[in-house]
Amino acid sequence: MNLKSFLKLFNISNKNFAKQIGVSAVSLSRYIIGERIPEKKIINKIFNQTNGLVDANDFFIDKKNNEDLSNSDIQEIDSILFNLRKGSRPHLAKAITLVESLLEKDKLRANLLLSKLKENDRSIRIGITGVPGVGKSTIIEALGSFLISSGNKVAVLAIDPSSKQSGGSILGDKTRMEKLSVDKNAYIRPSPNQGHLGGVAKKTFQSIRCLEEFGFNIIFVETMGVGQAETSVYDMVDIFLVLLLPSGGDELQGIKKGIIELADLIVVNKADGGLIKQAELTKNEYTNASQMTSDSRIDLKPNILTCSAVENKGIKEIWNYISKFIKSSKDKKMFYQIRSDQRLKNLWADVDLNISEYMNKNFKTKQYIKDLINKIEKNEVSLTEGSKIIYEYLTKKKFD
Ligand SMILES: Nc1nc2c(ncn2[C@@H]2O[C@H](COP(=O)(O)OP(=O)(O)O)[C@@H](O)[C@H]2O)c(=O)[nH]1
Ligand SMILES: [Mg+2]
Protein backbone atom coordinates (compact mmCIF):
# COMPACT_ATOMS: atom_id res chain seq x y z
CA MET A 1 0.00 0.00 0.00
CA ASN A 2 1.41 3.41 -0.73
CA LEU A 3 1.93 5.91 2.06
CA LYS A 4 -0.75 8.30 0.88
CA SER A 5 -3.43 5.59 0.98
CA PHE A 6 -2.23 4.39 4.38
CA LEU A 7 -2.51 7.84 5.96
CA LYS A 8 -5.93 8.35 4.44
CA LEU A 9 -7.22 4.94 5.55
CA PHE A 10 -6.21 5.43 9.17
CA ASN A 11 -6.94 9.18 9.31
CA ILE A 12 -3.39 10.13 10.24
CA SER A 13 -2.31 13.67 9.41
CA ASN A 14 0.94 14.21 7.49
CA LYS A 15 2.18 16.33 10.36
CA ASN A 16 1.63 13.62 12.98
CA PHE A 17 3.13 10.91 10.85
CA ALA A 18 6.19 13.05 10.08
CA LYS A 19 6.67 13.45 13.83
CA GLN A 20 6.27 9.72 14.42
CA ILE A 21 9.08 8.85 12.03
CA GLY A 22 11.22 11.87 12.90
CA VAL A 23 11.27 13.77 9.58
CA SER A 24 10.05 17.21 8.59
CA ALA A 25 6.58 17.62 7.12
CA VAL A 26 8.18 18.86 3.90
CA SER A 27 10.30 15.72 3.50
CA LEU A 28 7.26 13.55 4.18
CA SER A 29 5.21 15.23 1.51
CA ARG A 30 8.07 14.68 -0.96
CA TYR A 31 8.05 10.95 -0.15
CA ILE A 32 4.30 10.89 -0.59
CA ILE A 33 4.26 12.49 -4.02
CA GLY A 34 7.24 10.42 -5.14
CA GLU A 35 9.64 13.33 -5.52
CA ARG A 36 12.11 11.69 -3.16
CA ILE A 37 12.85 8.17 -2.05
CA PRO A 38 13.40 7.90 1.70
CA GLU A 39 16.72 6.57 3.02
CA LYS A 40 16.92 3.00 4.23
CA LYS A 41 16.67 4.06 7.88
CA ILE A 42 13.49 6.05 7.23
CA ILE A 43 11.98 3.24 5.16
CA ASN A 44 12.47 0.92 8.14
CA LYS A 45 10.76 3.41 10.41
CA ILE A 46 7.85 3.74 8.00
CA PHE A 47 7.64 -0.04 7.77
CA ASN A 48 7.43 -0.43 11.54
CA GLN A 49 5.15 2.53 12.06
CA THR A 50 2.68 1.17 9.50
CA ASN A 51 2.86 -2.43 10.79
CA GLY A 52 4.43 -3.45 7.52
CA LEU A 53 1.63 -2.15 5.35
CA VAL A 54 3.98 0.30 3.63
CA ASP A 55 7.30 -1.24 2.67
CA ALA A 56 10.30 -0.50 0.47
CA ASN A 57 8.55 -1.78 -2.66
CA ASP A 58 6.00 0.95 -2.29
CA PHE A 59 8.74 3.51 -2.85
CA PHE A 60 11.08 1.77 -5.26
CA ILE A 61 8.82 0.07 -7.72
CA ASP A 62 7.78 2.61 -10.27
CA LYS A 63 4.26 1.37 -10.56
CA LYS A 64 1.34 3.39 -11.69
CA ASN A 65 -0.75 4.03 -8.65
CA ASN A 66 -3.77 1.98 -9.60
CA GLU A 67 -5.56 3.03 -6.47
CA ASP A 68 -6.18 6.22 -8.42
CA LEU A 69 -8.75 5.96 -11.18
CA SER A 70 -8.86 8.42 -14.04
CA ASN A 71 -11.29 11.29 -13.85
CA SER A 72 -13.41 9.86 -16.62
CA ASP A 73 -13.67 6.56 -14.72
CA ILE A 74 -14.81 8.38 -11.61
CA GLN A 75 -17.33 10.39 -13.59
CA GLU A 76 -18.67 7.27 -15.22
CA ILE A 77 -19.20 5.60 -11.84
CA ASP A 78 -20.93 8.70 -10.50
CA SER A 79 -23.19 8.73 -13.52
CA ILE A 80 -24.06 5.02 -13.17
CA LEU A 81 -24.91 5.59 -9.54
CA PHE A 82 -26.90 8.75 -10.14
CA ASN A 83 -29.03 7.13 -12.84
CA LEU A 84 -29.40 3.86 -10.95
CA ARG A 85 -30.77 5.74 -7.95
CA LYS A 86 -33.20 7.51 -10.24
CA GLY A 87 -34.53 4.14 -11.37
CA SER A 88 -32.74 3.52 -14.68
CA ARG A 89 -32.70 -0.21 -15.34
CA PRO A 90 -29.97 -0.03 -18.00
CA HIS A 91 -27.72 1.60 -15.39
CA LEU A 92 -28.61 -1.07 -12.85
CA ALA A 93 -27.60 -3.68 -15.43
CA LYS A 94 -24.35 -1.76 -16.04
CA ALA A 95 -23.58 -1.72 -12.32
CA ILE A 96 -24.16 -5.46 -11.96
CA THR A 97 -22.14 -6.22 -15.08
CA LEU A 98 -19.33 -4.18 -13.58
CA VAL A 99 -19.31 -6.04 -10.26
CA GLU A 100 -19.45 -9.35 -12.14
CA SER A 101 -16.57 -8.46 -14.45
CA LEU A 102 -13.34 -10.40 -14.20
CA LEU A 103 -11.24 -7.69 -15.86
CA GLU A 104 -8.59 -6.11 -13.65
CA LYS A 105 -9.50 -2.57 -14.65
CA ASP A 106 -13.17 -3.18 -13.91
CA LYS A 107 -12.36 -4.42 -10.41
CA LEU A 108 -11.09 -0.98 -9.39
CA ARG A 109 -14.16 0.71 -10.84
CA ALA A 110 -16.45 -1.84 -9.19
CA ASN A 111 -14.73 -1.20 -5.84
CA LEU A 112 -15.35 2.51 -6.18
CA LEU A 113 -18.99 1.89 -7.01
CA LEU A 114 -19.46 -0.49 -4.10
CA SER A 115 -17.78 1.90 -1.68
CA LYS A 116 -20.48 4.46 -2.44
CA LEU A 117 -23.45 2.18 -1.77
CA LYS A 118 -25.36 2.74 1.44
CA GLU A 119 -26.20 -0.03 3.87
CA ASN A 120 -29.87 -0.81 3.58
CA ASP A 121 -31.50 -2.46 6.58
CA ARG A 122 -35.03 -2.10 5.25
CA SER A 123 -34.69 -4.76 2.58
CA ILE A 124 -35.46 -8.42 3.13
CA ARG A 125 -33.07 -10.96 1.64
CA ILE A 126 -34.57 -14.41 1.18
CA GLY A 127 -32.57 -17.51 0.26
CA ILE A 128 -34.42 -20.40 -1.40
CA THR A 129 -32.87 -23.78 -1.92
CA GLY A 130 -33.99 -27.24 -2.94
CA VAL A 131 -33.20 -29.87 -5.56
CA PRO A 132 -33.73 -28.99 -9.24
CA GLY A 133 -37.40 -29.36 -10.08
CA VAL A 134 -38.75 -28.90 -6.56
CA GLY A 135 -40.39 -25.64 -7.66
CA LYS A 136 -38.09 -22.84 -6.44
CA SER A 137 -38.67 -20.60 -9.47
CA THR A 138 -42.40 -21.33 -9.46
CA ILE A 139 -42.67 -20.37 -5.79
CA ILE A 140 -40.66 -17.20 -6.35
CA GLU A 141 -43.03 -16.33 -9.19
CA ALA A 142 -46.08 -16.87 -6.96
CA LEU A 143 -44.63 -15.19 -3.88
CA GLY A 144 -43.08 -12.38 -5.94
CA SER A 145 -46.33 -11.59 -7.77
CA PHE A 146 -48.18 -11.53 -4.46
CA LEU A 147 -45.60 -9.14 -2.99
CA ILE A 148 -45.64 -6.83 -5.99
CA SER A 149 -49.42 -6.56 -5.75
CA SER A 150 -48.95 -5.17 -2.25
CA GLY A 151 -46.47 -2.53 -3.38
CA ASN A 152 -43.09 -4.26 -3.06
CA LYS A 153 -40.24 -4.32 -5.53
CA VAL A 154 -38.85 -7.78 -6.07
CA ALA A 155 -35.49 -8.91 -7.45
CA VAL A 156 -34.33 -12.47 -8.12
CA LEU A 157 -30.75 -13.70 -8.33
CA ALA A 158 -29.54 -17.23 -8.90
CA ILE A 159 -26.41 -18.96 -7.70
CA ASP A 160 -25.60 -21.91 -9.83
CA PRO A 161 -21.89 -22.63 -10.12
CA SER A 162 -22.69 -25.44 -12.54
CA SER A 163 -24.66 -23.22 -14.93
CA LYS A 164 -21.73 -23.25 -17.37
CA GLN A 165 -22.50 -26.89 -18.04
CA SER A 166 -26.26 -26.73 -17.58
CA GLY A 167 -26.67 -23.47 -19.52
CA GLY A 168 -30.35 -24.20 -20.06
CA SER A 169 -31.42 -23.60 -16.46
CA ILE A 170 -31.56 -19.83 -16.88
CA LEU A 171 -33.91 -20.06 -19.79
CA GLY A 172 -36.01 -22.46 -17.73
CA ASP A 173 -36.10 -20.01 -14.82
CA LYS A 174 -37.22 -17.11 -16.96
CA THR A 175 -40.10 -19.06 -18.44
CA ARG A 176 -41.02 -20.28 -14.95
CA MET A 177 -41.17 -16.66 -13.84
CA GLU A 178 -43.31 -15.38 -16.67
CA LYS A 179 -45.09 -12.62 -14.78
CA LEU A 180 -42.06 -11.41 -12.89
CA SER A 181 -39.87 -11.32 -15.97
CA VAL A 182 -42.06 -8.65 -17.58
CA ASP A 183 -43.14 -6.72 -14.48
CA LYS A 184 -41.63 -3.26 -14.05
CA ASN A 185 -41.44 -3.83 -10.30
CA ALA A 186 -39.41 -7.01 -10.69
CA TYR A 187 -35.93 -7.83 -11.91
CA ILE A 188 -34.49 -11.24 -12.70
CA ARG A 189 -30.77 -11.65 -13.08
CA PRO A 190 -29.35 -14.99 -14.15
CA SER A 191 -26.40 -16.48 -12.30
CA PRO A 192 -22.95 -15.13 -13.18
CA ASN A 193 -21.53 -18.28 -14.67
CA GLN A 194 -17.82 -17.67 -14.79
CA GLY A 195 -15.41 -18.90 -12.20
CA HIS A 196 -15.74 -21.08 -9.17
CA LEU A 197 -18.24 -20.88 -6.34
CA GLY A 198 -16.35 -18.33 -4.23
CA GLY A 199 -16.32 -15.86 -7.11
CA VAL A 200 -19.96 -16.41 -7.98
CA ALA A 201 -21.02 -15.97 -4.35
CA LYS A 202 -19.03 -12.77 -4.00
CA LYS A 203 -20.63 -11.30 -7.11
CA THR A 204 -24.08 -12.28 -5.93
CA PHE A 205 -23.56 -10.54 -2.60
CA GLN A 206 -22.39 -7.40 -4.39
CA SER A 207 -25.30 -7.56 -6.84
CA ILE A 208 -27.71 -7.67 -3.89
CA ARG A 209 -26.29 -4.34 -2.75
CA CYS A 210 -26.74 -2.78 -6.22
CA LEU A 211 -30.34 -4.01 -6.35
CA GLU A 212 -31.09 -2.53 -2.92
CA GLU A 213 -29.57 0.79 -3.93
CA PHE A 214 -31.91 0.80 -6.92
CA GLY A 215 -34.87 0.32 -4.59
CA PHE A 216 -35.71 -3.37 -4.65
CA ASN A 217 -36.81 -4.21 -1.12
CA ILE A 218 -37.32 -7.95 -1.49
CA ILE A 219 -34.37 -9.94 -2.84
CA PHE A 220 -34.64 -13.65 -3.59
CA VAL A 221 -31.51 -15.73 -4.02
CA GLU A 222 -32.20 -19.11 -5.60
CA THR A 223 -29.71 -21.96 -5.31
CA MET A 224 -29.69 -25.59 -6.35
CA GLY A 225 -29.66 -27.42 -3.02
CA VAL A 226 -27.17 -30.01 -4.07
CA GLY A 227 -23.76 -28.36 -3.75
CA GLN A 228 -21.83 -26.19 -1.30
CA ALA A 229 -23.45 -23.00 -2.60
CA GLU A 230 -26.05 -23.19 0.16
CA THR A 231 -23.83 -22.09 3.02
CA SER A 232 -22.66 -19.12 0.93
CA VAL A 233 -26.27 -18.15 0.34
CA TYR A 234 -27.15 -18.72 3.99
CA ASP A 235 -24.47 -16.17 4.83
CA MET A 236 -25.95 -13.48 2.61
CA VAL A 237 -29.65 -13.66 3.44
CA ASP A 238 -31.92 -12.77 6.37
CA ILE A 239 -34.04 -15.90 6.10
CA PHE A 240 -33.25 -19.24 4.48
CA LEU A 241 -36.00 -21.42 3.00
CA VAL A 242 -35.55 -25.06 2.13
CA LEU A 243 -38.08 -26.53 -0.30
CA LEU A 244 -38.94 -30.20 -0.23
CA LEU A 245 -40.88 -32.55 -2.45
CA PRO A 246 -43.76 -34.52 -0.97
CA SER A 247 -41.77 -37.72 -1.02
CA GLY A 248 -40.21 -38.70 2.27
CA GLY A 249 -36.84 -38.06 3.90
CA ASP A 250 -33.96 -35.95 2.58
CA GLU A 251 -31.94 -38.94 1.44
CA LEU A 252 -34.76 -39.88 -0.88
CA GLN A 253 -34.98 -36.31 -2.11
CA GLY A 254 -31.27 -36.04 -2.87
CA ILE A 255 -30.92 -32.97 -0.71
CA LYS A 256 -27.46 -32.48 0.70
CA LYS A 257 -26.84 -33.47 4.30
CA GLY A 258 -26.70 -30.52 6.63
CA ILE A 259 -28.88 -28.23 4.56
CA ILE A 260 -32.03 -28.99 6.53
CA GLU A 261 -30.20 -27.84 9.68
CA LEU A 262 -29.68 -24.42 8.10
CA ALA A 263 -33.36 -23.92 7.35
CA ASP A 264 -35.27 -21.05 8.96
CA LEU A 265 -38.38 -22.28 7.18
CA ILE A 266 -39.15 -25.57 5.45
CA VAL A 267 -41.81 -25.71 2.75
CA VAL A 268 -43.14 -28.91 1.23
CA ASN A 269 -44.19 -27.86 -2.28
CA LYS A 270 -46.49 -29.59 -4.78
CA ALA A 271 -49.18 -30.20 -2.17
CA ASP A 272 -51.82 -30.58 -4.89
CA GLY A 273 -53.67 -33.29 -6.83
CA GLY A 274 -52.77 -36.76 -5.65
CA LEU A 275 -49.85 -35.49 -3.61
CA ILE A 276 -51.73 -33.59 -0.89
CA LYS A 277 -51.69 -36.49 1.55
CA GLN A 278 -48.07 -37.31 0.88
CA ALA A 279 -47.15 -33.64 1.41
CA GLU A 280 -48.82 -33.70 4.85
CA LEU A 281 -46.98 -36.92 5.71
CA THR A 282 -43.67 -35.37 4.71
CA LYS A 283 -44.47 -32.30 6.76
CA ASN A 284 -45.20 -34.42 9.83
CA GLU A 285 -42.12 -36.51 9.29
CA TYR A 286 -39.94 -33.38 9.37
CA THR A 287 -41.84 -31.87 12.27
CA ASN A 288 -40.83 -34.91 14.32
CA ALA A 289 -37.33 -35.30 12.92
CA SER A 290 -34.34 -34.77 15.20
CA GLN A 291 -32.90 -32.14 12.85
CA MET A 292 -35.79 -29.91 13.82
CA THR A 293 -34.96 -29.78 17.50
CA SER A 294 -32.27 -27.20 16.94
CA ASP A 295 -33.22 -23.53 16.94
CA SER A 296 -32.85 -21.34 13.90
CA ARG A 297 -30.45 -18.43 14.04
CA ILE A 298 -32.94 -16.18 15.78
CA ASP A 299 -34.00 -18.74 18.43
CA LEU A 300 -37.23 -19.69 16.71
CA LYS A 301 -38.01 -23.31 15.93
CA PRO A 302 -37.98 -23.65 12.16
CA ASN A 303 -41.51 -23.82 10.92
CA ILE A 304 -42.74 -26.35 8.38
CA LEU A 305 -45.45 -25.48 5.88
CA THR A 306 -46.96 -27.04 2.78
CA CYS A 307 -47.92 -25.20 -0.38
CA SER A 308 -48.78 -25.57 -4.02
CA ALA A 309 -46.96 -23.01 -6.12
CA VAL A 310 -48.92 -23.82 -9.29
CA GLU A 311 -52.28 -23.59 -7.54
CA ASN A 312 -51.18 -20.57 -5.55
CA LYS A 313 -52.10 -22.25 -2.26
CA GLY A 314 -50.19 -21.61 0.95
CA ILE A 315 -48.22 -18.73 -0.56
CA LYS A 316 -49.66 -16.11 1.78
CA GLU A 317 -48.86 -18.33 4.75
CA ILE A 318 -45.23 -18.50 3.63
CA TRP A 319 -45.12 -14.72 3.51
CA ASN A 320 -46.75 -14.43 6.92
CA TYR A 321 -44.05 -16.60 8.41
CA ILE A 322 -41.28 -14.66 6.67
CA SER A 323 -42.73 -11.37 8.01
CA LYS A 324 -43.03 -12.80 11.51
CA PHE A 325 -39.47 -14.09 11.38
CA ILE A 326 -38.03 -10.76 10.20
CA LYS A 327 -40.05 -8.84 12.78
CA SER A 328 -38.91 -11.10 15.57
CA SER A 329 -35.32 -10.84 14.34
CA LYS A 330 -35.53 -7.04 14.36
CA ASP A 331 -37.26 -6.91 17.77
CA LYS A 332 -34.46 -8.96 19.24
CA LYS A 333 -31.91 -6.77 17.42
CA MET A 334 -30.49 -9.93 15.88
CA PHE A 335 -31.25 -8.82 12.35
CA TYR A 336 -28.58 -6.12 12.47
CA GLN A 337 -26.09 -8.31 14.29
CA ILE A 338 -26.52 -11.07 11.72
CA ARG A 339 -26.03 -8.64 8.83
CA SER A 340 -22.93 -7.23 10.44
CA ASP A 341 -21.54 -10.76 11.05
CA GLN A 342 -22.31 -11.54 7.42
CA ARG A 343 -20.30 -8.53 6.26
CA LEU A 344 -17.30 -9.90 8.15
CA LYS A 345 -17.81 -13.42 6.81
CA ASN A 346 -17.91 -12.01 3.32
CA LEU A 347 -14.79 -9.99 4.03
CA TRP A 348 -12.83 -13.13 4.92
CA ALA A 349 -14.32 -15.07 2.04
CA ASP A 350 -13.09 -12.28 -0.21
CA VAL A 351 -9.62 -12.39 1.31
CA ASP A 352 -9.51 -16.20 0.80
CA LEU A 353 -10.58 -15.71 -2.78
CA ASN A 354 -7.87 -13.12 -3.44
CA ILE A 355 -5.23 -15.35 -1.89
CA SER A 356 -6.21 -18.34 -3.97
CA GLU A 357 -6.31 -16.18 -7.10
CA TYR A 358 -2.84 -14.88 -6.29
CA MET A 359 -1.56 -18.40 -5.64
CA ASN A 360 -2.88 -19.71 -8.94
CA LYS A 361 -1.95 -16.76 -11.12
CA ASN A 362 1.32 -15.48 -9.72
CA PHE A 363 2.72 -18.08 -7.40
CA LYS A 364 2.26 -21.61 -8.68
CA THR A 365 3.61 -20.45 -12.03
CA LYS A 366 7.02 -19.45 -10.59
CA GLN A 367 9.93 -21.64 -11.63
CA TYR A 368 11.26 -22.22 -8.11
CA ILE A 369 7.84 -23.33 -6.94
CA LYS A 370 7.63 -25.70 -9.89
CA ASP A 371 11.08 -27.05 -8.96
CA LEU A 372 10.00 -27.48 -5.35
CA ILE A 373 6.82 -29.28 -6.40
CA ASN A 374 8.86 -31.51 -8.61
CA LYS A 375 11.04 -32.48 -5.68
CA ILE A 376 7.99 -33.15 -3.53
CA GLU A 377 6.55 -35.34 -6.27
CA LYS A 378 9.76 -37.36 -6.36
CA ASN A 379 9.75 -37.52 -2.57
CA GLU A 380 13.11 -35.72 -2.38
CA VAL A 381 11.45 -33.11 -0.17
CA SER A 382 8.75 -34.18 2.27
CA LEU A 383 5.28 -32.79 2.05
CA THR A 384 5.44 -31.09 5.46
CA GLU A 385 8.83 -29.58 4.65
CA GLY A 386 7.56 -28.31 1.28
CA SER A 387 4.47 -26.85 2.81
CA LYS A 388 6.57 -25.12 5.50
CA ILE A 389 8.90 -23.60 2.90
CA ILE A 390 5.97 -22.20 0.93
CA TYR A 391 4.23 -20.90 4.04
CA GLU A 392 7.39 -19.20 5.28
CA TYR A 393 7.96 -17.67 1.90
CA LEU A 394 4.44 -16.26 1.81
CA THR A 395 4.61 -14.87 5.34
CA LYS A 396 8.22 -13.74 5.42
CA LYS A 397 7.36 -10.08 6.01
CA LYS A 398 8.58 -9.50 9.55
CA PHE A 399 8.34 -6.49 11.79
CA ASP A 400 8.32 -5.81 15.48
N1 LIG B 1 -47.79 -30.14 -9.28
C1 LIG B 1 -47.00 -29.12 -9.06
N2 LIG B 1 -45.97 -28.88 -9.88
C2 LIG B 1 -45.16 -27.83 -9.61
C3 LIG B 1 -45.38 -27.00 -8.49
N3 LIG B 1 -44.41 -26.05 -8.46
C4 LIG B 1 -43.62 -26.28 -9.54
N4 LIG B 1 -44.08 -27.34 -10.24
C5 LIG B 1 -43.52 -27.88 -11.49
O1 LIG B 1 -42.23 -28.43 -11.21
C6 LIG B 1 -41.35 -28.19 -12.29
C7 LIG B 1 -40.08 -27.50 -11.82
O2 LIG B 1 -40.38 -26.22 -11.31
P1 LIG B 1 -39.27 -25.10 -11.15
O3 LIG B 1 -39.93 -23.95 -10.48
O4 LIG B 1 -38.57 -24.83 -12.42
O5 LIG B 1 -38.25 -25.80 -10.15
P2 LIG B 1 -36.78 -25.33 -9.69
O6 LIG B 1 -35.81 -26.12 -10.48
O7 LIG B 1 -36.74 -25.72 -8.25
O8 LIG B 1 -36.68 -23.86 -9.89
C8 LIG B 1 -42.14 -27.37 -13.30
O9 LIG B 1 -42.63 -28.22 -14.29
C9 LIG B 1 -43.26 -26.78 -12.49
O10 LIG B 1 -44.40 -26.51 -13.25
C10 LIG B 1 -46.50 -27.28 -7.62
O11 LIG B 1 -46.79 -26.60 -6.64
N5 LIG B 1 -47.26 -28.36 -7.97
MG1 LIG C 1 -35.27 -22.65 -10.93
Notes on the protein architecture:
The protein has about 400 residues and is α/β, with parallel strands linked by helices. The protein has four domains: about 5-60, 434 Repressor (Amino-terminal Domain) (Orthogonal Bundle), CATH 1.10.260; about 70-115, Single alpha-helices involved in coiled-coils or other helix-helix interfaces, CATH 1.20.5; about 125-340, 3-Layer(aba) Sandwich (Rossmann fold), CATH 3.40.50; about 345-395, no CATH class. It has 20 helices and seven strands. α2 (about 15-20) packs across α3 (about 25-35), α7 packs antiparallel against α12 and α9 (about 135-150) crosses α17 (about 315-330). The structure holds guanosine-5'-diphosphate and magnesium ion. Guanosine-5'-diphosphate binds near residues 130, 137, 138, 176 and 272.
How many beta-strand runs? 7
The CATH homologous superfamily name of the largest domain equals P-loop containing nucleotide triphosphate hydrolases
Shape: globular
Put simply, the count of helices is: 20
Main sheet summary:
7 strands, parallel
Name the structural class: alpha/beta
Key structural traits:
434 Repressor (Amino-terminal Domain), Single alpha-helices involved in coiled-coils or other helix-helix interfaces, Rossmann fold, 4 domains, seven-stranded parallel beta sheet, 7 strands, binds guanosine-5'-diphosphate, binds magnesium ion
